Amino acid sequence: MSSSVPADMINLRLILVSGKTKEFLYSPNDSAADIAKHVYDNWPMDWEEEQVSSPNILRLIYQGRFLHGNVTLGALKLPLGKTTVMHLVARETLPEPNSQGQRNREKTGESNCCVIL
Q1: Nearest alpha carbon to residue 58 among 108, 93, 12, 21
Q2: What is the β-pairing status of strands 21-26 and 58-62?
Q3: How far apart are the C-alpha atoms of 39 and 59, rounded to whole Å?
């Protein structure tokens, strides 16, 4: 892809778990769900081994957080005319904030309260 990004667009460099990357141009109004659908519909040929069955399981991760489907690039305050890196993963469900740790503690009976030595 050319090094010049249109001033009103955001260039996303998406990285798969395998380390493969591809760049796509998006508008600030595009949502995480729009991007997942676009990537699914325009799946790069060199990502063939990672092809997924549905755009609904594609998730974007930005700065360590899963993006929910309705969040737009503009809402993330991504710089226009620049390249932003995100990870793209196949995952059925999104973790709820802090719920994973809570569920694990309930299963194991652990608590994060106190350690008495």
Answers
A1: 93
A2: unpaired
A3: 11
pLDDT digits (tens, 9 = 90+) for 72-108: 999 999 999 999 999 999 988 766 666 545 445 455 5
Phi, psi of 77 (to 5 degrees): 60, 40
Question: What is the distance between the alpha carbons of residues 53 and 114, in angstroms, rounded to a whole number?
Answer: 45
On the 0-12 / 13-18 / 19+ scale of CB atoms within 10 A, 57 is: middle
Full-prediction pTM beyond 0.85? no
Q: Does residue 63 come out as left (phi exceeding 0), alpha (psi in the -120 to 50 range) or beta?
A: left
Pairing of β 10-15 and β 83-90:
parallel
Q: What angle do CA 61, 91, 36 make, to 5 degrees?
A: 60
Which listed CATH number (3.90.180.10, 3.10.20.90, 3.90.76.10, 3.90.1150.210) goes with 8-88?
3.10.20.90
